Structures are given as structure tokens and as C-alpha cells.
Amino acid sequence: MFAKIGEPFVLFGPAHLWALVIVAVVSVAFPLWMRKQSPVWQQRVAFGMAFLLLTYRMYGPFVYHHYDNVRLIDGLPFQICGMLALVNAYMLWRRSYRVYEVAYFMSLSAAVQPLITPDVFYGLPHITFLLSTISHGILVMSATYATFVFGFRPTWRSVVITFVASNIYMLLLFPVNMLLGTNFMYVMHRPATASLLDHMGPWPVYIFVGELFGLAFFLFWYIPWAFRDWLRGRQVWRIDAVRTRLPARYLDETSTTM
Questions:
Q1: How far apart are CA 201 and CA 85, in angstroms?
Q2: Where are the domains of the chain?
Q3: SS3 for 183?
Q4: pLDDT tens sequence across 158-191
Q5: What is the maximum alpha-carbon separation in the chain?
Q6: CA angle, corner 166, sides to 161 and 100, nearest 5?
């Protein structure tokens, strides 16, 4: 059905840019539309997304092995996005906020990077390009879906939890990589295809630089929530300030109208 060799992938070429636009629009528009649907359909869609993520984890390695000659052992779910597929599937299935605290930041940071610089050799309409774009797009939409539909939101505590958890996970991958001869999370060397790591220095410098970038991404994705909390805090402060200048007989009335 799909040719084994296709047109070479062109970074930020027309097909790549259109893919980025479609993923961005769908990841926001679809969850916003689902907010208006019944809770039954909201959960059915969540189950469907979880099923797609698990299906990808089950069959994806065989696709990459056949078309890109990627070793099956490299398809184990230890790469950060591979693990996220399992984590996000559990979050969607169980509606878990504890998992969401980590999944929100990791999905919008770790899954976005492979969309911007895909680890593929061939472009559209090659199956590996489609599989990479769709799978990482669903990871991103898992975070937006849980945010808009489930009503979840991160906190400062979530930033700390995610940063600590991701570092512990990375440390655990060193012995795994040495034992299996793999390069999960690229902690042993940089990927063969172009990526942001190419601009972060040699090994192991790029790992520490990547740490700073990771933290910056987490903070970036928390800015909307911090700004929202700041605005709400100012509104509460203004209401309280007005109340202190009102006669006592008006306090009950303002408490019911504000």
C-alpha cells in the first residue's frame, strides 16, 4: 500500500508546515468543540484516543522496522514519547489528574519537539511521516483534551513534579541504554536526523542544556495559568478593597452580587 522509499523529508517544507498547522488547529478546536458535547460522548472520545495511543505503541515499532529499518528493540516504550503514549492513555482512560500533572507539560514540550523536527527520513505521503505526525499530534491533543474537556489545570507544584520525575526517568535510562545498546531519550548520543540537540553542544553538554530548555518549556506552558491566576488575584483584591470602603449594610448585598 505504501512505498518503502519516498520523497526525502524537507524540514519546514510545505507538507511539514501544513502538518504543523493542522495539528495546532485540531488540538485546540476539537477539545473546545467536545466541551459542548454530553459527558458520555466526552468519555467515549477519551477512550478512543487512549485506544489509538495503545494501538500506536503496539504496531508502530513494526512499521518503523519495515520502512525505516529501525531495530525493534529501539521501538520499546522507553523513548519519552513512547512512554507518554502509555501514560496519556491511562490518563484519558482513568481521567487521572495526578497523571495529568506530568502529562500536560511533557506532552506540550516533548511531543511538540518531534513535530517541529521529526525523526523521519521521508516526507508526505510516506507512512512514517504520517504515523509520526498523527501519533505526536494525539499526544499533544491528549493534554489539551484533558484541559478543556476534563477541566484539569496544572499548578506550580505540577511544574516541580514534572521536572523531578523527568530527571529521575532520564537517570534510569542510562543503565537501560547501556544494557540494551539503545539511545532512549538521546542520553547516549544525538539522533541521526536534525534536531534541536544539534545546537546544544557535544555530549554530555547537550544533556544539561536540554535540561534548561526543558524547564523553560515547562514554565512557558505554565505562563497562561500564572497570568490567569494573577488576574483573578487582582480582581479579588479589588473587590476586597471596595468592600472595606462600603458601609456595613452593603456588604451582604455585594457578597451576593460579586
A1: 29
A2: 14-222
A3: coil
A4: 999 999 999 999 999 999 999 999 999 888 888 7
A5: 79
A6: 55
